[in-house]
Specification:
The complex is a heterodimer of chains A (712) and B (437). In chain A, 67% of the residues lie in helices and 0% in strands. Chain A is mostly helical and 712 residues long. Among the domains of chain A are: 127 residues; 110 residues. The longest helix of chain A has 22 residues. The relative contact order of chain A is 0.04. Chain B is α+β, with helices and mostly antiparallel strands. Chain B is built from 9 helices and 23 strands. In chain B, the strands form 5 sheets. A 9-stranded mixed sheet of chain B has the order 11-13-9-8-23-21-16-19-18, with no helix packed on it. In chain B, a hairpin with a 2-residue loop joins β6 and β7. In chain B, α5 packs antiparallel against α6. The longest helix of chain B is centred in the N-terminal third of the chain and has 19 residues. The chains are: A mainly alpha (712), B alpha+beta (437). At the A-B interface, α1, α3, α5, α7 and α9 of A face β2, α1, β4, α2 and α4 of B. Chain A: Keywords: Membrane, Protein transport, Transport. Chain A: Adaptins are components of the adaptor complexes which link clathrin to receptors in coated vesicles. Clathrin-associated protein complexes are believed to interact with the cytoplasmic tails of membrane proteins, leading to their selection and concentration. Chain A: InterPro entries: AP_beta, AP_complex_bsu_1_2_4, ARM-like, ARM-type_fold, Clathrin/coatomer_adapt-like_N.
């Protein structure tokens, strides 16, 4: 009967006079009718109806001995207190009374609810009950009161400080009950985060001892809090770090994945300063629980996989033997599959790549287009990562090309282009690639094939014909393809001047007179002038040797990685982005991101390793070398430079560093050498042929900028 | 931490909204979630951040359970909590779906109030919660003494057990349940085989019993007999398997198990909760005994016909038998008609799922059965290659463990020193048992 009535409350259309009906019920002389009316009111509240008009009527039902009813009225109060701040004062009396009730459940309920009512008048009355309940004899009430301090701080920090609640909380870390300890730490951690200046949670060796004691006894959720606090504790004492690790390691065996991840985080951070052998031992112990996380619920798995990805970037060897665990199951959700794929590539080494390759080939024949593409890309990443695997990878790619599945072929071509940029000696497969010419309709794939043709023009007898077919539709191509085509034709001309004279003329003519895109036009002009001045210099620039790429995997910059390792199992670690990028409000968030990005850029420039942000400047400086030394530049760039170029660029599009790329004053000029606003960063690099990269200092950017201008 | 918990049905109607912090507006949030997740088929991640609000959602039966956060929250904790909420719902209402939520929304609010405070998870142990959050309601007059006891328990070091449990017969049932996962390639090589095991215990023991639990864990047994000669590694492995010990790759325990003790000397020591609970989970990857071997030959003949030959063989002892063996054999999407012949059991084509279901109710050990089938295909305008999803198996097999795990002993120590009866059962089920062809 009761169930039916509730169910009837759910149709969305409001009935006439419902509020009236409820009010009558709430004021009924019969207890059961009143209770029923309260239930109905809560039901209406859930549906989003405004039942705030019933506030006074509900208040009357607050002083009851029925715990259920009390809970419901309190729930209502929490929701609507703001709309009737003046009436709230009527509730205070009951609250204070309840907080002294002999029943600990009611005491706790009262203090819990009072903290949630965000009305100034109530806050004033909260002081006394809170002080009492913090010292309550029942741990249940104490643990509730501990959280209430955090609520009060959120509402009125000064009141909280004045009353010394913070100090009481600090004392409570030494409570005999582990749950009280956990909640006190939780509350202090929250206050610490909200306003670090209070120094609410400064872990001293003494507190550390208490935390480690409570760790083994409190509930799973409490353990997460304590472990997180332990991870944030900074120690320089090796003995202390060893002690923490020793006490935390048993938590790897906990059934709750969030406890396991929190434990991994704590150990991973403190492991850094302890002895090498011991650290190695802990790393070994870490692997099995991490693997076990992969068999949890898909969403938890996803979080775990993203974190494993981070850990592997720092320590690639932890899971070296566990490749098979990451094989995708057919029914895994797509987000899990993609993540597993990335992890497998990170684990891949000389010993296990054959296994991986077989598996990737299998994936490349599935139906989910996105997944298939990533699988094909993974084959390429595998080839570039492991030299001995390359030949087998190329064979698999050729097999895939033979399947004639459109998107597989296109992705395979893009991947093969990267392989060419890493290894010599695979020119033999070019004819096979050229056969797929008609299948390619994506700019990325077309651009890649054109790059290959241009690069190996001397070995392809019909290179001119191939390019000509593209040039006929020059104006209809994507900018990215046009740029590639331009460069490829110039290369062809430099390699076979006699056959390509007409072609290059045609392309340059078309690019300079008929195209509106300034990037394209400017690049054409640069080439034109180069060619018309001295063909030898042009050759030196356009056909110079390029350093091979070393990786096409996306990696985070060391600084960011380090920061994210401190955020394990949080949202930041799932997104692989610092927390400022997605929390905080609007403009504030963006500013913080920009600031960080600039700092990072400056730092990377200082270290003169061309990190993602430094690359553009690097480009300009080396240009300086080429033009004024007149000779082919020595490839002085560290290998990481290209690494970041190829693999790092797509990461940069998604990463918070992107705002800086817009602020670079070299932008317009860069268009000449850059493949413009290339949507797919992977191909960006092909715009740089003939140039080398090296580290640069920001102050030199301006100079090189002018130098280049004077060139014209 | 969590700013709110929302429950939705499949249409995107908000069933439950409980706000824990002041930083979110319920009804706007539910609109956003409805538009961005429920009616957006493109969603590929369970976590979505819009502005500075993060939605973490889990789907169960026909409802969405959503955790809303505004900070850089602990994502693993949020999901684990949502799953815990589902488990709680299931144990309270039998089923946690739209109907259960609508019928029990008051109780759900009560539960949420108890298990989350200011967005921080509190005690989520079902047994403890059931003591004071009930469908009947606790009258506070009679409950004052009760309550102090309850609250002591809800926060105590043994938050999972009452002290005054009494049974006339002291019994403990131990169920070892293994899910065996297999991925086999078309060539018949095992790409991946592992076992996810779970030990479920039903303890009906009086007082506060201390239990000691022993398995044929290799590390432990090795520790006992250190005198084993060190031979080559492969040989050693074989002798170990013969000696009947198992390498547990990883174990995880219920919070009642003293983890420190396990870490130092691999002894499983605990005070069990009353009634049923999951004592531990483990994972084993070495020497996995596969109960079934499947051999499938699938030939695509032209574009209109596919021929199947599937043979399945039971590898376990002839005295055992598996029940409910179901083999799902995928068919191309454009299958028009299928004819099947089987040497045992029944085979049926399920057009909506695109596979042939072959059911064998009782599968005796060491026997072998065959299915042959022909699928006729309709011709399609865009002939796309068939992706050949793997064939998959489900079964349950009693008195058999794939990993070879055995319970060696379960000792119960209690002050009153009563004697207790213990029962052990073993079962192996199919986890993800996939065979490519």
């Amino acid at each position: 009967m009761a169930a039916n009535r509730i169910r009837n409350m759910f149709p969305v259309t409001p009935r006439k006079g419902e509020t009236f009906e409820l009010r009558t019920g709430l004021n009924s002389q019969f207890a059961h009718e009143r209770k029923e009316a309260i239930r109905s009111t809560i039901a209406a509240m859930t549906l989003g109806k405004d039942v705030s008009a019933l506030f006074p009527d509900l208040l009357k039902n607050m002083a009851t001995s029925d715990l259920d009813q009390k809970k419901l009225v309190y729930l209502y109060l929490m929701n609507y207190a703001k709309t009737h701040p003046d009436l709230c004062i009527l509730a205070v009396n009951t609250f204070v009374q309840d907080s002294e009730d002999p029943n600990p459940l009611i005491r706790a309920l009262a203090i819990r609810t009072m903290g949630c009512i965000r009305v100034d008048k109530i806050v004033e009355y909260l002081e006394e009950p809170l002080r009492k309940t913090l010292k309550d004899e029942s741990p249940y009430v104490r643990k509730t009161a501990a959280i209430c301090v955090a609520k009060l701080f959120n509402l009125n920090p000064s009141l909280c400080l004045e009353n010394g609640f913070l100090d009481t909380l600090k004392e409570m870390i030494g409570d005999s009950n582990p749950m009280v300890v956990a909640n006190s730490v939780t509350a202090l951690a929250e206050i610490q985060e909200a306003s670090p200046e209070t120094g609410a949670l400064l872990v001293t060796p003494n507190i550390l001892k208490k935390l480690l004691m409570a760790l083994n006894e409190c509930t799973e959720w409490g353990r997460v809090t304590i472990l997180t606090t332990l991870a944030e504790y900074k120690t320089t004492d090796v003995k202390e770090a060893e002690h923490i690790c020793e006490r935390v390691v048993p938590q790897f065996q906990h059934v709750n994945p969030s406890v396991v991840l929190a434990a991994v985080k704590a150990v991973f951070i403190h492991m850094r300063i302890i002895g090498h052998d011991l650290a190695k031992q802990y790393t070994r112990k870490m692997a099995p629980p991490l693997v076990t996380l992969v068999s949890s619920a898909p969403e938890v798995q996803y979080v775990a996989l993203r974190n494993i990805n981070l850990l592997l970037q720092k320590q690639p060897e932890i899971l070296a033997k566990e490749m098979r665990v990451f094989f995708c199951k057919y029914n895994d959700p797509p987000y899990v599959k993609l993540e597993k794929l990335e992890i497998m590539i990170r684990i891949a080494n000389e010993k296990n790549y054959e296994q991986l390759l077989m598996e990737l080939k299998e994936y490349a024949l599935e139906v989910d287009m996105d997944f298939v593409r990533r699988a094909v890309r993974a084959i390429g990443q595998c080839a570039i990562k492991i030299e001995s695997a390359c030949e087998k990878c190329v064979n698999v790619l050729l097999e895939l090309i033979n399947t004639k599945v459109n998107y597989v072929v296109q992705e395979a071509i893009v991947v093969i282009k990267d392989i060419f940029r890493r290894y010599d000696g695979y020119e033999g497969i070019i004819p096979t690639l050229c056969k797929c010419l008609d299948e390619l309709d994506e700019p990325n794939a077309r651009g890649s094939l054109i790059w290959i043709v241009g690069e190996y023009a001397e070995k392809i007898s019909n290179a001119g014909e191939i390019l000509e077919t593209f040039i006929d539709g020059f104006k209809d191509e994507y900018t990215q393809v046009q740029l590639q085509l331009l460069t490829a034709t110039v290369k062809l001309f430099l390699k076979k001047p006699e056959t390509a004279q007409g072609l290059v003329q045609k392309v340059l003519q078309c690019a300079t007179t008929e195209c509106d895109n300034p990037d394209l036009r400017d690049r054409a002009y640069v080439y034109w002038r180069l060619l018309s001045s001295d063909p030898q210099i042009a050759k030196n620039i356009v056909l110079s040797d390029k350093p091979p790429i070393t990786s096409t995997m996306q990696s985070l910059s060391p600084g960011l990685l380090e920061q994210l390792l401190g955020e394990i199992s949080t949202l930041a670690s799932v997104y692989h982005k610092p927390p400022e990028t997605f929390i905080g409000q609007g403009r504030f968030g963006a500013d913080a991101v920009q600031k960080r990005a600039i700092e990072e850029q400056q730092q990377s420039a200082r270290e003169s390793t061309a990190q993602a942000a430094g690359v553009k400047g690097a480009n300009a400086e080396n240009l300086l070398d080429i033009d004024f030394d007149g000779a082919a530049p020595a490839s002085a760039s560290p290998p990481t430079a290209l690494d970041t170029m190829s693999g790092g660029t797509p990461a940069r599009v998604a990463s918070p560093l992107s705002p800086t790329s817009g602020s670079n004053n070299l932008d317009d000029l860069l268009g000449v050498f850059d493949s413009g606003p290339a949507p797919a960063g992977n191909n960006l690099v092909t715009g740089f042929e003939g140039l080398n990269f090296g580290g640069s200092l920001p102050q030199q950017q301006k100079r090189s900028n002018e130098d280049i201008l004077s060139l014209f | 931490m969590l700013s709110g918990i929302l429950l939705f049905n499949q249409k995107g109607e908000n069933l439950i909204f409980r706000q824990f912090r002041n930083d979110c507006r319920g009804h706007r949030l539910s609109d956003v979630f409805r538009i961005q997740v429920i009616s957006n088929a493109q969603v590929r991640s369970p976590i979505l951040t819009l502005g500075s609000t993060t939605f973490s959602h889990v789907k169960h039966e026909n409802i969405y359970i959503v955790g809303v956060t505004k900070s850089n929250a602990n994502a693993a904790l949020v999901f684990e909590f949502l799953y815990r909420l589902i488990a709680l719902g299931k144990s309270y209402f039998g089923k946690f779906d739209e109907e259960a939520v609508k019928n029990n929304f008051v109780l759900i609010y009560e539960l949420l109030d108890e298990i989350l405070d200011f967005g921080y998870p509190q005690n989520t142990e079902t047994d403890t919660l059931k003591m004071y959050i009930t469908t009947e309601g606790v009258k506070s007059e009679r409950a004052i003494e009760d309550s102090s006891r309850i609250t002591m328990q809800a926060t105590g070091a043994l938050s999972w057990r009452r002290a005054d449990v009494k049974y006339r017969r002291n019994e403990a049932f131990v169920d070892v349940i293994e899910d065996v996962n297999l991925l086999m390639s078309a060539q018949g090589t095992v790409l991946r085989a592992d076992v996810n095991g779970q030990i479920v215990m039903r303890a009906y023991l009086s007082g506060v019993p201390e239990c000691k639990f022993g398995l044929n864990d290799r590390l432990l047994l090795d520790g006992d007999g250190l005198t084993r000669p060190s031979g080559n590694k492969g040989g050693q492995k074989a002798t170990r398997a013969a000696a009947g010990s198992v390498t547990l790759e990883d174990c995880q325990f219920h919070q009642c198990v003293k983890l420190g003790k396990f870490d130092t000397d691999r002894i499983i020591n605990f005070v069990p909760p009353d009634g049923e609970f999951e004592l531990m989970r483990y994972r084993a990857t070495e020497n996995v005994n596969l109960p079934f071997r499947v051999h499938a030959i699938v030939n695509e003949i032209g574009k209109t016909k596919v021929e199947y030959q599937v043979a399945i063989r039971a590898n376990y002892g002839a005295k055992l038998f598996a029940t409910n063996v179901i083999i799902r054999i995928p068919t191309p999407l454009n299958t028009a008609n299928i004819s099947t012949r089987t040497s045992q059991g029944k085979a049926k084509y399920e057009p909506s799922e695109n596979y042939i279901v072959w059911k064998i109710a009782r599968f005796t050990g060491q026997s072998e059965y065959v299915l042959s089938a022909d699928a006729t295909l309709t011709s399609m305008t865009n002939q796309k290659a068939w992706s050949r999803p793997p064939l998959n198996l489900s079964f349950s097999l009693l008195m058999f463990t794939s990993s070879g795990l055995l319970v060696r002993y379960l000792k119960v120590f209690e002050k009153s020193n009563y004697s207790s009866v213990k029962w052990v059962r073993y079962m192996t089920r199919a986890g993800s048992y996939e065979i490519r062809f």
